[in-house]
Amino acid sequence: MGVSVSASTAIIVAGLFFAFTTFYPVAANGFDRVTDAQHGMNERALERQNTAFAVSNATYDGTTLTVNATNNGSVGLVAGDATLVVGNEYVDVGGANAATTVDGNGDTELWLGGETLSIEVAQTDTNIEDGTRVVLVVESGVRDTAEVSA
Which of 20, 111, 144, 148 holds its CA 20 to 30 A away from the CA of 75? Predict the structure, then answer.
């Protein structure tokens, strides 16, 4: 075996070593990102599974729409992060036209299990009448509906 064969073998081995040291961190980072994404997906699924609430009633007295919902799940929810849809129109729960109270307390946004959330919405541009559908959606995507009664 000549010097050129030994030198080319050394160059090939050095190239493979360099390629491996470059490939390994990239593969490890990719694996970590996939694992983190799967973990986050599982956490969100567990949160959805533990979230349960029911819209008990929705009433409209001509000027104010009142929606009451009870948290039946084991996950605490944020009242201001809820989304309310009235007659296919979005109503900003955290906005100026709406007020939220949790078990009569208007100073808290935390809606724990067993507590009742009341949302009062001042007159909107939406035509609200008997039978208008109200949909309440919380941050995990769980939703419940009710029909408005006068």
Answer: 148
Q: Does 45 share its domain with 60?
A: no
Tell me if 144 sits within 8 A of 138, measured CB to CB.
no
Overall number of domains in the chain? 2
- Over residues 27-52, the pLDDT tens digits come to 999 999 999 999 999 999 999 999 99
Domain range for residue 33? Answer: 1-50
Q: Is 36 left (phi over 0), alpha (psi -120 to 50) or beta?
A: alpha
Long-range CB pairs of 113-117, under 8 A, 24+ apart, other chains included: 113/71, 113/72, 113/73, 113/74, 113/75, 113/76, 114/70, 114/71, 114/72, 115/70, 115/71, 116/56, 116/68, 116/69, 116/70, 116/71, 117/53, 117/68, 117/69, 117/70, 117/71, 117/79, 117/82
At 110, list the tokens.
Answer: 């935390």
Whether the full predicted model's pTM is greater than 0.85, yes or no, is no
Residues 6+ apart with CB under 8 A from 121: 64, 65, 66, 67, 84, 86, 91, 97, 98
φ, ψ dihedrals at 87, nearest 5°: 55, 45
